[in-house]
């Protein structure tokens, strides 16, 4: 049961549609909504972040922070869910750490797609920090997403502690009797087949919770796994795609890339990432 939802934005005007969607999500569940508004110090260009910072007196940055918070409050003025809106202001390089240390305890954290952020680098940094270090599931919503209820979900499955935690989180979010597809993507049928026993165990667990669970294997050596899962979720008209986040070391993800990073960079379906 969700009772605390934390949304994170960096621009109240750009994020207004996202904020209203999150407010509806919280209201439907009787949850309290908190909104963290991040205001970075001025930069010569957001594209240069984390470099290109321009010095301004603290009092000026405080004023920018207050104006940003006011924009968020205005975007939520017609929403009925109980809420708190608070701001952080700092150099863009430190804001993700400020948030992690100060306000990260919630049942779920929600962020918008790239289009809802003024500083793309900050969005990526915040998402990666929260997935790795907050211990809280992160829900990323596309620009025009509506995820009030979850009647059909896709669980991207590769056995790992992160995937198991994602499974438990999905059980809390999905509606009773929801249809859940357990999907493993591999380069070969043999690679997918190695997860047959794990699929059976996950299906059995979901069935005991009253869900209609089915296992699926997708062989695709051409497209990245993130793209394959996204296409499958769209074909199935799923309300939510769920994965475990950053199952590999950070160095390996930086060098080779990873499913989690791909989803953070481009989210065209609602996706829940559990670290």
Description:
The structure is a single chain. 40% of the residues lie in helices and 23% in strands. The relative contact order is 0.14. Mean pLDDT is 88; it is low at 248-257. Strand 6 (152-156), helix 5 (161-173) and strand 7 (179-186) form a beta-alpha-beta unit. Helix 3 (95-102) packs parallel to helix 4. It folds into 2 domains: 4-141, HUPs (Rossmann fold, 3-Layer(aba) Sandwich); 152-274, HUPs (Rossmann fold, 3-Layer(aba) Sandwich), CATH 3.40.50.620. The protein is α/β, with parallel strands linked by helices and 275 residues long. The two termini are 19 Å apart.
Do you know the CATH topology of the largest domain?
Rossmann fold
Order of helices and strands: EHEHEHEHEEHEHHEHEHHE
Total discrete domains: 2
Work out the helix count: 10
Whole-number radius of gyration?
19 Å
Assigned CATH class of the largest domain: Alpha Beta
Q: What proportion of the residues is helical, as a percent range?
A: 25-40%
Distance from N terminus to C terminus (CA atoms, Å) equals 19 Å
Shape: globular
Report the mean per-residue pLDDT as an integer: 88
Strand order of the largest sheet: 3-2-1-4-5-10-9-6-7-8
CATH architecture classification name of the largest domain: 3-Layer(aba) Sandwich
Work out the strand percent.
15-25%
> Which residues sit in consecutive blocks of at least 5 with pLDDT less than 50?
248-257
Structural class: alpha/beta
Count of extended strands: 10
Biggest sheet overview: 10 strands, mixed
In CATH, what is the homologous superfamily of the largest domain? HUPs
